[in-house]
Give the backbone structure.
Amino acid sequence: MLYRKIHNCVAVTLYALILVTLSTLSESCTGQKERKDDVPTITVEAESFISNSGNISVVNEKKNVVTVQTKEADAWLFYKINLPLSGRYTIRLYAKNTLDKEAVCWIEDYFDNKDGKTYNVSGNLIVGGKDNNSKEFVQKEGTLLTASSRYLKLHIEKGAVSIDKLTFTLVKDDKAFQNISYSKSEGNWQLVWSDEFNGEGLPDSTKWIYDIEGNSASWGNYEEQHYTVGRKQNAWVENGKLAITAIKEDLEGKKYTSARLNSKAAWQYGRIEVRAKLPKGRGTWPAIWMMPGGWSFKDGNWPDVGEIDIMEHVGHDPNVIHASAHSKDYQWQHGNQKTGIINSPDATENFHSYILEWSSEIIKVFVDDTCYFTYKNEGSGETKWPYNKPFYLILNIAIGGAWGSVKGIDDTAFPQTLEVDYVRIYQKK
């Protein structure tokens, strides 16, 4: 009714201010704080590099553009950057590929890096290729960075790239990563299904099934594992925990074995809580996620049917946890999936609770008491919100794949195990 009463400039202005205020008040998860307009963008010019990897055949620094052609699989340029605030930054790489094939670029954090590990803080920045070579820049929302004068390596894999600059724009400051208090009684939840993994033996066949339908197709994602059925080495319950184990061994034409368990039950809305310790190892890709009830790999129609990722972790980016919601309009192939990222420094050493709270209006994902991802129903239909039906739960470790093998697979790391302490499903009374 309000808009019918707006007949002059003053009213229009007031209405706009009200909308802005309501939008601000509607944020229900601190981890989704919007970027402030007055936050400066930090720019790193391509030609300002301190050193390079030495396996670069061409470095052209004319006209503020550096052209890099790699002799080997990976080359890098070394930069210094001054970040004034701690938080998560949107990272943009302004670059063009001078060849037809895609080049994979990514940024390594070199701040106080004394543990010998490699930290990819940007994710893959794909430059070139048929679909995106005309773009002025590629960007990703990176992981949490602390305020400091620090060093970064820009890696360029398998390509020839002309680089203009890098920019870093703060989107979530350090306050967004403070813990949010949470009470298990909040929301009046009632336990409706659980597996505490008591006893010893194969997973409870009244609660879980083995999913192997995508083995022959490498799960449509170039994955390297063969999922097995009823095999103690890959899925076993003992000492109050479920162990899903990936092993380096030849079976059915694959070099690795693992297990993928689907819950027999499916639920529409609720609180899904899985307490787990994650595997290590470059090339591992464990996940706790959900797909629509009755759907199987052979049915196809992904991601239109919807997918909810409660926890994903790739071994080459240790202790960085991802949550996502995929649909026809929002999906990772287009780089526009609804997603959140959080650092959990001991995720591969200790157990943590990975939690989804899901209603007809909103999806929230937590690690323990910290909410770091929300997605609100836009009211625009199935192509954006296919989450108004029952979904079942999936527990698995994939090996390799389009994401898991970005930095290769470390065969010396196996076997690796996803340990699950319990699975508990709550719904509102």
